[in-house]
Amino acid sequence: MNRIKLWPHGILVILACAVVGAIAALLWAKYERKAEASSLPNAARIERVEGQAGINQSADNTANSQWVTATANMPVSVGDRIYTKQNSRMQIGFTGRNLATIDGNTSLDVLDLSERRTQVALRDGSALFDVGSIGSGDLFEVATPCGAVDLEQPGLYQIAINDNGNAVATTFSGQAQVVGQAGASRIQKGEYLAVPCQGNGPAVMSRVEPNQAGSLIDNYYRSRYPKTYDGRYRSYYTYLDDPYYYDSAGRYPSYNYVSEYVPGLDDLDDYGDWQYVSDYGYAWHPRVSNGWAPYESGYWTMDYPYGLTWVSNEPWGYAPYHYGRWAYASNEWFWVPEPVSTYPSYSPALVAFIPLGQSSAAWVALGPSDPYVARYYDPNWQPVYVSPSNVVVDRLVNISAPGAVVVVPTTEFARVIDPTIVTRVDPQTIARVRPVLDPLTIDPLRSAAFQTRQARGRFDVPREIEQRIVNTPVVASTAPLAPAFRRDLSRALRVEPLNDRAKSQKLQISDQRAAVQTTQQPNLAAEQARERQMADLARQAARGDRSARQQIQELRRQQSDQRTVQGATVQAEGQRVGQQTRPQDQRQLLRQQQQAQREAARQQTIQSQQQQRAAAQQQAQSQRQQRRQNQIQQAPVRHSQQQQVLRP
Questions:
Q1: Alpha helix positions (H), 495-582
Q2: By CB atoms within 10 Å of each CB, which of 75, 329, 338, 564 scores lowest?
Q3: Are residues 69 and 11 in the same domain?
Q4: Cβ burial, residue 267 (10 Å; 0-12/13-18/19+)
Q5: How many CB atoms lie within 10 A of CB 634?
Q6: Which CATH number is 204's domain given?
Q7: Claim to verify: residue 112 and residue 97 sit in the same structural domain
Q8: At 393, is the pLDDT very low, low, confident or very high (cuts 50, 70, 90)?
Q9: pLDDT score of 392
Q10: How far apart are CA 274 and CA 580, in angstroms?
């Protein structure tokens, strides 16, 4: 009987525990959801595109219809796939100092872009990685089908999948470690390591060929810094002597005011100036025409998982539209970045949207004191906010600035935005509307937002290539940190992490460095002295010094003869160690010789033009001097004649 009386109390206790458990579960889910949103990965920037390149930013990365044409200033984030077609090239900025140049016929996937980890997957083709900054304990890794290449120091690296399907890692400067199923090995500067994917035979370690290295590095810097590069890295030894001559952090003032984690800082100094602005400190002012306003030249696109994202058509238009805020002061617009010492948080667009009915879409750049809530969207495009999510926007700093509110017809929202289609609205109309931060909460704008993907140019990837990209697994030293919106990242992108045994095991290597050591390491000081002497003589030759031109020709002949001897010695020594020259190697050697001949002809043409200009300048100067002498000689005669005329 007593037990029966206890039943109601027991039920109450059980119900209370259930309620407490449910509340705890909800609180934990809410906390976990917010914590995941607050740890969103950063985004890389497409710096420039030459030729044809596409990007797949969909959630599953399977359908060919989801590939769109890649353009400059597009953000690239975790789970995105990139493909370049033949004779094309793309440059990507992971941060302000870490970049990659993707060659043609290359597939690159982004696996991780967190604060201390950058992981990408190279399944086909080749890419050049320019790592300017990497902290102690940070990870910068390129996963390939044959193994993971960890770039351990700042430097310049090339990772490629050759015609035999092997991964080749080249360290022009810096230090890297290759970790595969068969073990691990380090690569020092001036070395390369070819690792077979199928485990057939040992990996091959050798040294880079200086002429080829110099040509590749020269082409890269000529493309990367077209306005300032002076051609000094045509010699690989000059590059080794001073590889940081063009380091962005030491050449561009923007790195003094913006965190180096932000991509695209170089462009700020090319297209604007830093000024001190009261209440904001140092801010950046773009060199634009009168009446210009931010967020009015570019296009909107839906980028999973960030949502509606702004892609600017302005060459500098990445950092100022995804980081910091805009301020209107002294009748000019200024971009105010976050403090240089803070780790920046990427945002798809730092604007507030203004509901203006069914026919118009409007937005305005957020000011330094305006609120913003970071968010991402789940596969059903439902938002996940960082706490607090109930932010109410009453008044915006820039709402009254001239031209700050960009208004376009809803029918034009999915197209490219430019000032010609921007309209203006009565300020009183705007004042009666409450701005919102999430554009997908506005019904007309939500519908228009999903049409932006269809408006982008489609990029066709042949089905056999796409199937190879999707079905080729890659090896990583560690699994990428899967974000909340892509829990199955490793499975979806076929990333296979290595076990501890493979990491600790020493890779079996066929070391061929000694065979080319004597030929590929000439006297560095002598080579640099020759380069400096030729530069000095070139300046003298430009002033018309014929003796200097003759000395340049002699030095170039000596340099050419020395490189020819080195190449012949390399081939002979390679044959002595059992490396017979294959037909494709002969064709490659022939192409290199033809390229050298074309370069020599080009240099001769340039030299001839310089000589002609110098001769013309010297002739013109001689003619001017002759005219002055004639005038001096004729002056007394004219004076005497004038006196004779004046005599009575």
A1: 500-504, 513-520, 524-542, 546-576
A2: 564
A3: no
A4: buried
A5: 10
A6: 2.60.120.1440
A7: yes
A8: confident
A9: 72
A10: 59
Mean pLDDT of 287-304: 95
Task: Say whether pLDDT at 121 is over 60.
Answer: yes
Q: How far apart are CA 199 and CA 383, in angstroms?
A: 46
Tell me whether residue 255 is in a domain. Answer: no
**DSSP secondary structure of 313-373:** SSTT-SHHHHSSEEEEETTEEEEEPPPTTSPP---S--EEEEE--SSEEEEEEPPTTS---
Instruction: Point out the domain boundary residue: 165, 192, 208.
Output: 208
Domain presence at residue 127:
yes
Of 438, 455, 472, the last residue of a domain is 455
pTM confidence score: 0.76
CA 469 – CA 323 distance, rounded (Å): 33
| Domain extent for 16 | 1-38
Least confident of 91-95, 389-393, 510-514: 389-393
pLDDT over threshold 70, residue 535: no
Q: What percent of the chain has pLDDT over 90?
A: 55
Q: Count the domains in the chain.
A: 4
The reply to whether 101 and 151 lie within a common domain is: yes
How far apart are the C-alpha atoms of 259 and 343, rounded to whole Å?
7
Q: pLDDT (tens digit, 9 = 90+) per residue, 360-370?
A: 999 999 999 99
Residues 160 and 52 reside in one and the same domain? yes
Same domain, 447 and 315: yes
Residues 401 and 435 in one domain: yes
Q: pLDDT tens digits for 152-174?
A: 999 999 999 998 889 999 999 99
Q: Taking a C-beta distance cutoff of 8 angstroms, is the pair 387, 31 a contact?
A: no
Contact 298, 456 (CB under 8 A): no
